[in-house]
Each structure stands twice: as structure tokens, then as C-alpha cells.
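Q: Convert this sequence to C-alpha cells.
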Amino acid sequence: LKVQPGIFREDRNNQKVKNVDCEVKSDQAIALQLVGKMSVDCHVVKSGVALNAMMNTAFPVSGKMSIDLVKKEHKVTFESPEKERELFVMRSKPFVYTEESRSQPSADGIRREDKIFKKIDIEGKRIQKSPTVFHTSYGREEFGIEFALDSKMVSRMNKEKTAPFQPLTGPVELRLSCKPGLHAPTQIDIELQQTEDRMRHMSPLERLVYAEENERRNEQRLEVNIHAKHPQHPRTMKIELNAYDQKIEQEDMNDDSEESRIPRRFRHGSSKEAEPGVSMATNNKLKQWANQILRKTIVINMERSPVPNKETQDFRGCVTVKFEYPSAPEWRLLQDRRVKASIDALWGRDCSGNDKMIKMAAKWQKSDEQRRQESMEELQEQQHSDDVNSQEEESERPEKTNIYSACLRDRREGLTETRVCKKALDQRSLLRQLDIDIEYRNLPTWLKEMSSSLKKYAYYTFFDRLTVEDVDVHNEANRIRMRCTINKDQKEMNVSMET
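A:
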């Protein structure tokens, strides 16, 4: 380990650490054994079921690390494994046991208790006879290091509902390993950089403006360069990550819903009761919050060299993730809001969208049924208030109230966590409808097979609650639209899909 200008503050005259260089060679391993028992104790005889689980984890690390805190450039070097290594292994085995206590007199006349322990492995007709074996591996050609995942387990019989659940059905084994693959690299270098190259070519004034803009947007940039060394077939990969925030104005929310009328109490400022008194600066800030949406954006660009003996062109991939939600705090009684999310994934020869592409847009909002129910609740509440007011004198007539007005009055008195306020927040913030729009093009074969398997699984699982309309249906090609709606009690979900 080497630290410049020094490890201790006295050695570097209270200067900040600039560089850190270290070399590590270790082969750490952790073993853990857990035994869980559930039994019935009858004092003389104890019987129950137990699970014996063992986990082994190995951390073979050999390499160098260099950290530059001034330029914000870091480099890590790993030596690739020369033989197969087990990274993680877990094995569990259930069994039934009985423990009997017997007391027998000894030669000296003292009675001694002996415990007889009997162990029986769980085996029977209610579980499958042969275990289910799963094996998958990745990276043999892509990385030159093959990572393999193997599992072996015993599943319960589908027809036998009284069979035990996992992991009490039988032995379970999970194994994660790695070994050299095709054209295995001798060494792997990883470089991380947090600053941008274009800042080096800026003037001082341009750097100041750029730094202020980044601070306002809370922008973070990271660049990762990976180089796998090999005499004939070296591999390179470059990953750029950019994350930033934006504040945008609230859009018109009435166009997305089939209900043209939003209940009056959902509109900001409709209640006669006001929020607790605050300063003018805070009040202006709250008004800005009420009309602003916070958008978080994450952009990931990846470029790697072609896989030897498999590809002839470089691979490029671009992913853009956006998430929009109200910027106001959660405790504000705002008008009806929506939450949106989108994912744009482009990969293949380039990121122009001419090769493989998936675009997904999700939107959480209040369902039309939810709006109608809340509108009826408001009318019933006002009708009840009118009946009460008709029986009072004009001078003593109370004001019409609902749960939102009652919550605001409680807050003016300093009570923020009352039952009325919790109910008001739950009703206003609960979004029971999710709309998903997916557009795709030129998907790989493995992704098509996975979507087909998921479709078959859904048909098989929900066949008694499934309705399929496939006659005279002309949906748009390469597009999926889905709507999920939760009922009032939040116990049932209705899903409709157009493919």
C-alpha cells in the first residue's frame, strides 16, 4: 500500500491525499452452516422437521488498484483465473427427526438420562422422484471467462396440494463457478473516470458556467473502460453513464382519462381551508412545487469489440431511462397527479434504431372507476352536510366539510398525522391504474422464445379467468398495449392486453 503524500496527516503536513496505490493477493473463503428446527416437545419425545443448510463462498482476488483523487481517475487490474473456481455453493437437506429421552439407573444408583436421536430423510410419493437439474452459462466467447450457474432441487407435485413447499421437499444445491473460456485473457484492466474530456478544452468562464449548470441539474457522469489482454484476441469495452435531473412544467392531465370531469376536490386550491401559514418565500416555493414535475434521466451507452470467431462488427447499445413524478413533498394535498416512466433500448450495429429496438412507456394514474367512486363519495358527503344544515339555525349553520378540509384544519392546529389526514393522503396519492405501451423491432431469438414461454405460462395459470379475442382483430404490428387496474379493495387486478 502506497499513499501520496503520506498515510498519516502529520507526514503530509495536513495536505489532502492525492494518490493511492495498492497490490492485493488473497484467497479468502467463508463457510456458514445453518440448522433450523421446528418440533413438538412432549417432554419425553420430541419430533419435528429440520433443515440443514451449508454455504461456501470464495473470494479469490489478485491484482492492483490505483486511485487518483485529483484527476478522479481510478484503475483496477485483475488477473484472470487459470482454472475453475467455485464462487458460491449452497446445499440444503431437509429431514424428519425424533429425539427420545430415556433414564436408566447406573451402577452407583444415580439415574442418568440418555437421548436417542433418529434422523429420516424426507422421501415420499408427494414429491417428484428425480430432482430437477438446471444449468446455464455465459461469457465463454463474449468475455473469455465462463460463468456457470448450476442448480438441483426437488419440486412438489402439482396435483398434491398437501405436499411440503420448498426447501422442505428435498435436497437443494446451488453452485456458481467461473473458469477460463475461449481465448481467455491473461489480465483485465478496468479504468473509471468521473470528469469529462471536453472540460479540458474549455476556458475558465466556460468551465464556471458548465459547473453551475451541472450543479443545478445534479448531473453525474462516469466513464468505464475495460480492456481484456490477450496476445491474439484482445477485448475492449467502453461504458458511459450520465444521470441528471430536470424540472418541467405540469402538463394538462385531463387528456389521458376517459372521464372529462375531475372531481372538484382534486383541483388545487378548491378547498376553503388553507394550508398552515408560512412565509411568503415558502408560499411561493410551494406554488412552484404544485406545478412542477421532476424528471430523472439515466443514459447508458456501451460499445465493445466483436466477439472472436463469432462477430465481425463492433457492438453498440444505448439505454435511456426516464422517471417523472411530482416534485412537491408527499405531505402536500395536491390535485390529481400521475407518475410516468420510460425505457428506450437500442442495440446492434449502432444506436440509430434501425437494428434491434425496444421502447416501453409506463404511466400510473387514477382509474376512471376510481374517479367515479370518489365523485360519488363527494356528492354523498355534501348531501349529508346539507341535511344537517337544514336542521340548524342560519346563524349556527356549520360549513360544508370533507376529509380534505378537516385535514387542513387539523394541520393548522399542528396535527399532521391524524386519521383524517392519512385517509386524505391515501385517497389522493393512490394510483390504481397502470398503462404500459411497448414497441419493439428485430428482437433476438432468445427474447422471442422467453416472451412466448411467458405467454404460455400465463395462459396455463389463469386459464379459468382468461378471455381471448382473436377474431377480426387488427392490432398494430410490433406493439403491445397493456392496462392493469386494481379494484377498490386492492384485492383483485384486471389486466387487458393488445398484441
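Helices lie at 204-217, 280-290, 368-389, 403-412, 419-429, 445-461.
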